[in-house]
Amino acid sequence: MTSGAAHDPPADGIDRLNALLRSELAAVATYQRALRAIDGRVPSDSTEILRFAAEHQRTVATLQAAVRGLGGTPAVEAGLWEAFERLRDTAPLRALLAGEEAGLAEYEAALPSLLGDPRDLVENELIPRQRRQIATLTKFLADLAA
After folding, report:
1. What CATH number corresponds to the domain at position 37?
2. Rounded Cα–Cα distance for residues 116 and 130 (Å)
3. Of 26, 36, 43, 45, whose CA is between 20 and 30 Å from 69?
């Protein structure tokens, strides 16, 4: 675990976690819409898409707890992914992939402003998860193109 208990969190630590939380809230909504849009048109291992949606929902709860743990109030409105959700074209998986890539970039950018448990969460759990999801969605898109 990263040591940060002796230091106050960076001034923007709560804000940064809330920004990540807003992205996760939007990711949950985007996955729900994409699952409805691609019903029956996803490769046979579509259970991965459902798993990703569930992971984002769990991440919402985890980030809410992290914000509360720092004495903040968790965000309740979605953020960044709303732009990806609005694409609504015939490639919902591409929209999901773009959202996952943007989420990865946001997590990586947040690391310098996070300490302790929130940093460990982002660095050791959320970033690796984003990378796995990007790889899987990329494979899904390649399979659909074949």
Report:
1. 1.20.1260.10
2. 20
3. 26
Q: Based on the structure, what is the number of domains in the chain?
A: 1
Return d(Cα 67, Cα 44) in angstroms, integer: 38
Which pair of tokens denotes residue 27?
Answer: 């990711």
Side chain identity, residue 115: L
Domain span at residue 63 reads 13-145
Q: Where are the alpha helices (DSSP H) in 38-126?
A: 47-69, 82-85, 92-110, 116-121
pTM over 0.85: no
Q: At what angle do helices 13-37 and 92-110 cross, to 10 degrees?
A: 170
Q: Are 141 and 118 in contact (CB under 8 A)?
A: no
Interval 93-110: pLDDT, tens: 788 889 899 999 999 999
